[in-house]
Amino acid sequence: MLVPRKETPDLSLPLIGGDRFTLSEDASERGTVVCFYRGLHCPVCATYLRELERLTPEFAKRGVKTVAVSSDGVERAEAMAEKIKAETLRFAYDLPLTEARDWGLFISTSRGKTSIGIEEPALFSEPGLFLINPDRTLYYMSVQTMPFVRPHFSELLAAVDFAIEKNYPARGEYTGAV
What we know:
Layout: E1 12-14, E2 20-22, E3 31-36, H1 43-61, E4 64-69, H2 74-83, E5 90-92, H3 97-102, E6 107-109, E7 123-125, E8 128-132, E9 138-143, H4 153-166
Parallel strand pairs: 3-4, 4-5
Antiparallel strand pairs: 1-2, 3-8, 6-7, 8-9
Helix pairs in contact: 1-4
């Protein structure tokens, strides 16, 4: 189980365009937003990632980098980046589902073609949104079992502003007896 203020698993995945995303080497001033998405087959993901693409420059102004991650292969990841007209949002791909589980993500099985006519992979992870501190400790997370009702990136951006202004610590760190 991931716990706030504790180190998260590392991620080291290829990025479209030929570079590599390695969380432990991301070198951001205030952290990294890691947005795990279901894949090209998900129309809700495309809408969601468009919003992250739009706000990525705002996160960058606050010293926070962004990356979208899926278990899709390079072709599908490139198609998603093209679909949302990505210019600033990085796309990592080939997430092993064993690593998705390490992050607490739920795994789903294929139901065939989606409403937009794209075949779901046999297995894929459901969405998760994480804000990871530069020292790779968990600041914020939201993990879902469904593609619907996701956290708003504008609210996360406002939370980053609040946390910076108030030096607000990550919460939910207590793991003792209750």
